[in-house]
Amino acid sequence: MAPVSLNGPRVAVIGGGLSGIAFANRLLSHRRDLSPGLRVTLFDTGARALGGRCSSKSLKLTSQGTYARWDHALSYVAASEPRFLQIVDDWVNAGLAEYEDPTRVVALDVDKQLVVPGDASRKVAVATGEGWHELCERWVDPDVRVVRPAWVARMSRTAGERWLLGGSDVPGDETTFDYVVISHNGKCAARLIKSSEGAAGVAVEKSVQCAFSARPREQLAKQRRLILSSIWSVGVAFPAGAVNAPFDSAHVSGGDGVLAYAKRNKQDVDGVEVWSLLSTAEYGKANKVPQERVPRAKGAEVTNALLDSFALALRASGGSLDESAEILSSKYQLWGAALPLTVTRESHLLDLSTRVGVCGDWMGTGDARSPSAQSAVLSGEALADAVAANLASDDSKGARYVKWRTATASATALGDILLV
């Protein structure tokens, strides 16, 4: 490998979710030990904000002329590892998040009419203010150059053995880098690595290969790649009091097989409560349509199915839904690359011979067996530490292949799990 740029190493991060931001922040924290000229550029496709799976949207309340917050993907974070606990504490102290009662995050078995409260000893937090995208925008280090919206579609080797990036809205002064970090998954990441025509390294290329399917666990155990599932996410605004629930979040099993998760969103609008309803992977597979052009009839069908399943789950928990109450607003989204059903045994991947790394919520940390916000952050930080060590030693070894395993059955598409 050629020496890094004379003015300081240049690092590109492709994907501005939790893992990408965590990587960028952590790497910049090593500047004193590395080079004051270290530059980190974070590319993200988000037109509105950073965040990836960590994002919130708005529901327009037509009768009030205001907007209510809808957490359409990540709904809460659960912290158990000391380092992530420290980060969540920092978010809370900065007013970006607040802690919730962990016992109100429950497991609900509809068939058995069984509600299992969450572990009272763990820390559960939700974003404040406008939601998760605001947290991400304010958490990123101000010295990180954020480029969005930008679609990085190509990466190739220069004659000087650096990386040349190309794509939509990639600035001309932000194209050549010493290191490239991939912090997103799915077909887009696989296509990007493939565009390098083998220059990124076989181990890296294999680590981002993926397939989409809801498969039985015995089949997932045989997979040696990332398996992603598609789910539906629906946000519904009710008049306050329309939902009588003995929980704030419920990981649902059994019943009609439609609803996997329900969450009462933190809300600043008086007289309104918004619930996020996420489908099972099986329902998502059975009702798959082009996510960029969801037919209105299909969206209405899915919304009604999830509302019916929500009412069923509430009755099973001893609660109820006032089905005569007016729905103030609703919105649906087909989330194509939602839930990783397999995870790696490694926290990150770094090929020192090509200076390409991979991190994300599907990469394990410690005994982690599920995709989670905690795994995303710790994966990004572990990769940053590895890049910092490489910059200090200039090692050039190749990467080992990652090993895959099945995610826990309690993993859900919101990016966190219930541990009971």
UniProtKB/TrEMBL annotation:
Coiled coil: none annotated. It comes from the Eukaryota. Pfam families: NAD_binding_8 (PF13450). InterPro entries: FAD/NAD-bd_sf. This is Amine oxidase domain-containing protein. It comes from Pycnococcus provasolii. The lineage of its organism: Eukaryota, Viridiplantae, Chlorophyta, Pseudoscourfieldiophyceae, Pseudoscourfieldiales.
